[in-house]
Design goal:
By secondary structure, the chain is an alpha+beta fold. The protein contains seven helices and three strands, in the order αβββαααααα. The structure holds FE2/S2 (inorganic) cluster (FES).
Length: 169
């Protein structure tokens, strides 16, 4: 990664915008896999703007790298005031915005953000679309990403290390 990009990423994550859960969000999108360690969750709140339903605010939590956090920070600012259609029209490179072109090995970090945004803007992800009493999709049902990592997994095996045998036994 070149030095300029590293500087821009450091600047973006030194003061990340819109970090954290959002109480009362209208929609929640999650991408990634807690098994392999990269996850990003996005909360979106809409508002009415002269008859247009636009994104009022978006927040995120991430278990991605610094680039993913930087892109999520910039993207959650970028989508403010946009309709769902306008936000969905944004491409990965638009979301990375001021970071500039990302090297090939970092493009998937921005794609993680794009995936979470698309998931959050999918009507099926609307909090209101989950009927009361119904079980929400697994990733969205965990209140935080940390819960997704720490909740017990079905079929998981607990490994217990035994102490080495004592001499003479
Ligand atoms: Fe995997 Fe950035 S999210 S390296």
């Amino acid at each position: 990664m070149n030095e300029d990009l590293e500087k821009r990423i450091r600047a973006a994550i030194s003061n990340p915008q819109n970090l954290g859960e959002m109480a009362g969000a209208d929609s929640i999108g999650t991408v990634g896999n807690s098994e392999c360690g990269e996850m990003l969750r996005l909360w979106v709140k809409f508002k009415d703007d002269n008859g247009r339903r636009v994104i009022d605010r978006a927040t995120f939590q991430s278990f991605g790298c610094e680039t993913a956090i930087a892109v999520a920070s910039l993207a959650t600012e970028l989508i403010r005031g946009k309709t769902v259609q306008e936000a969905l029209a944004l491409k990965t490179e638009d979301l990375a915005g001021q970071l500039g072109p990302l090297p090939p090995m970092k493009i998937h970090c921005a794609q993680l953000v794009e995936g979470a945004l698309r998931s959050a803007l999918d009507p099926a992800s609307a909090v209101a679309a989950i009927p009361p009493g119904a079980v929400a999709p697994a990733p969205a049902s965990a209140p935080t990403l940390l819960d997704s990592f720490t909740k017990p997994r079905e079929g998981a095996v607990k490994i217990v290390f035994r102490p080495p045998p004592s001499p003479g036994s």
